[in-house]
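Consider the following assembly input.
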Amino acid sequence: MNDHELDLALTDFGATRVQPTAPPMLRQRIGTMPLPSNTKRGFLPRIPQWRFQSMFSATKFVVAGVIVALFGGFLLAGVLTQQPSERAVAPASSPTATWAPPSELAIEELAPGVMKATLAGVGSIERSGSKHDFTFDQHGDMWMLSPDGLRRVGDETSYPGPGSTDAYWDLTSAPDGALWAVANGTVASFRDDVWTDAPEFPGKPPASALEVLPDGTVWARSTTRLARLDGDTWTAYRITDEYGPISDSTYIFPGDLAWTLDGSLWVTTCYDYHDDDRGLVRSKDRGGLVRFDGTAFHPAAPPRPLDGCRVSPLASGTDGELWAYLAAELSTLARFDGTDWELSDDPVGIPRIHNPWMVVGFMVVAPDGRLWATGDFGRVLGAFDGTTWTDASVPREERLGSTGSVSNLLERPLRVAPDGSIWVWTLDGYFLVITPEALAATE
Amino acid sequence: MPAGRRMQESEEQRTAAFRQLADQRLDASYRLATAILGDGSQSQDAVHDAVLLAWERWPSLRDQAKFDAWFDRIVVNVCREQLRRSARRPTTDITTQVSLGTPDPAPDVHRRVLLAQAFDKLQPDDVVVLALRHFLDLQLDDIALLLDVPLQTVNSRLRSARGRLRSHLQEQSSDQVPR
């Protein structure tokens, strides 16, 4: 390809890539997002234009520069000295007394009861890509899936597979003791040390995440498809009924999946799309939160609309409750106890979070019923007891897993271990663990 | 008028002024983001993050007349940061699927796919400079201004980026032709 051909090819490629106008949704999103105060964060003071004009001589300019630098230095020093103070997990009397992580993990205590756990061979997720996932089985064993296969942490044995490539997305445990994984589109179960591939997931792109319900039903989703595995058969589901039965021309956008103890599957969705003679047609229904009743999906009815077009994380608890973060402009947490919805309008109460679009990324419910969530692009971890938030963030130089945006590196960086500890997989490849003792100390 | 009230109004005016400028620049910044990132949803996130960053840095912008260039630079930096996280989960843009599904001269589609794959292998700086030059048709001095680097550096980056892109394309071609 000569220079001219390359120019032409790039121009043609660019024409398919560049989108000339911002979609209305983005305009709405930008127009409605709250802007926190930007005058109280140690910014250097804004120097009015007229002062610059009057300081035009070189001498004055140098003097002004020194003053600004000194002033900035004082401010910077002030900011730096304030940073690590927001960790509010209270000390436990003996933080590691009963918590027994797998011996293969190297443990470092970052704060009382807040541990940094490192597994040899697992490096930065940011650099290596999403090539690992982890989960805990019913016995409390920790499992790690990687390009080398599956292994029980603390166990030398590795079980190759499933799939043939190294792009692993999701690993989860089933109530019957099996593990289920999505590995580069292959859905497979691991039982009695043997991988068994499920039939091919219907449609493209391939599956990227799954949920196993208490009755053993397996649900998987891709970016445009949601399907249930019944024995050896996948059944794809649509969300709205605007386009008739689902077909290869129908696209849905399942977001987060969660199940509650009553056996319901809950899904956040965005618009459905249908490709027909008119081109790509979008459903009238913007989507939101839907619930599967055993036959079809029906809109659930939180007291306020849930904008499924933003990833609205869901989490279910051991009391059968469902938490939904209403990621629309409302920025509200909704809790469904099986009968009624209860709202908390202060999810921004996670300390240091002030923007609803980047607030809550992932959520899990701890055994004590508290909701744990990452936020602010993974820089913050907090616990919500229904009334107040507790900040358990690590120092700022450490980073937690990413948030629920579509470009997440991990499907579920936040897990609850059977012993009740909260595990957060950080982008740097180590786990941040809030031990049960530390959790108890904050109650 | 009480001082508190005056301060509040002033804060509201500042916010309103920023919102207006950001809104006016939204199409252009989204265009910029899609050129660099190629993905609609990632571009939306990038523009959103850029608006937030811009608001944080708003007090440091002395001349609002320079908002457009200042904001574009922030958008580019946010996009570059997204690219830097090159291990991000690939997302499927439905519009790509559909456009590939519609009648299209096969060689064009094939070429676009090859280019897309080759692009994915480039470093963020290469992607940015190629996008600005070839997708947005910016002049070299405009690119220099946007990236805050000398014109000579833009020239050099562009030449290197094209070379690496061509090299990736050649690798792909040779992979597909049995020897």
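Residues 1-9, 86-107 of chain B have pLDDT under 50 and may be disordered. Ask yourself how this observation constrains the way the partners meet.
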